[in-house]
Design brief:
The protein is of the alpha/beta class. The chain has a single domain, classed as Arginase, Chain A, CATH 3.40.800.10. Helices cover 31% and strands 16% of the residues. An 8-stranded parallel β-sheet has the order 2-1-3-8-7-4-5-6, sandwiched between helices. Strand 4, helix 5 and strand 5 form a beta-alpha-beta unit. Helix 1 (61-68) crosses helix 10 (298-315). The longest helix is centred in the C-terminal third of the chain and has 18 residues, at 298-315. The chain is globular and about 55 Å long.
Length: 318
Amino acid sequence: MSDPFFHPVSGFDLPRFAGVPSFMRLPQVGLDHARIDEVEIGLVGVPWDAGTTNRPGPRHGPRQVRDMSTMIRAQNDATGIRPFEAANCADLGDVGPNPADLMDSMERITAFYTILKTKGIRPLTAGGDHLTTLPVLRALAAEGPLGMVHFDSHTDLFHSYFNGKMYTHGTPFRRAVEEGLLDPRRVVQIGIRGTMYDAEDVDFAKSVGIRLIPIREYFARGYTDVMEEAREIVGSAPTYVSYDIDFIDPAFAPGTGTPEVGGPNSFEALEVVRALQGLDIVGADMVEVSPPFDQSGGTAYLGASVLFELLCVMINRS
């Protein structure tokens, strides 16, 4: 059982529209807080989009997701899990990026997550664009490569963009494989679709053993069957989960920089995460929420709901 200090503020005690927002109304515990060493799962914002190549805005994602996550309550209606009673969870604040220096920002992110790993805190991250995942993996996979379940409409496996630029939100997992952060034979990418520049990313995936599940196959087989295969691919070894909000059809999640039509609905967006129950998830993220393209907050609320589902499966590892 978790310490009551780490329980969210209840809507019965303070209206959800009142107070300073934190992720899921959890206590705010910075790295210098007296109780930081008691945190088991830390929610972290990475307000950074220096890797964006199309429509900017994910740097504003963590703030809007925090605000919308005040609607999250104590119990998962589908699974019955009460995550805040099962583990000490806290909002660890944001990693402060350097908006003028992409490489320095990645070093800052890696340094922050290295501290969390040293303290035994498993991170749950709200991005930020998808390049965010690379410096996180540099910290979490320092002792050996991880498996990964990746929900996205894009592979993010390109070699480079714009005359050899190696670090964009289209390249993080190419770098992660090259750097030995991911075991490509234990990586599955689900929901891939959209028009293409060429097949370079797909060819790379095939060459190293990454399993791509395009959206046509996803719908032909059904998400239950697809997720059974995903679980088999990553197995029981340590695994990271990365969830790009553009995995979801833009009819349900328009607030993102590179939307692709023909994706899953919001129900399936949550069900695929629930199917991860029992995996050894050492960290997870939900990225690419871009508030300027959905000021209503609907996309951010869906993103917060995905984070809650990720939190539940991170806790329920059996």
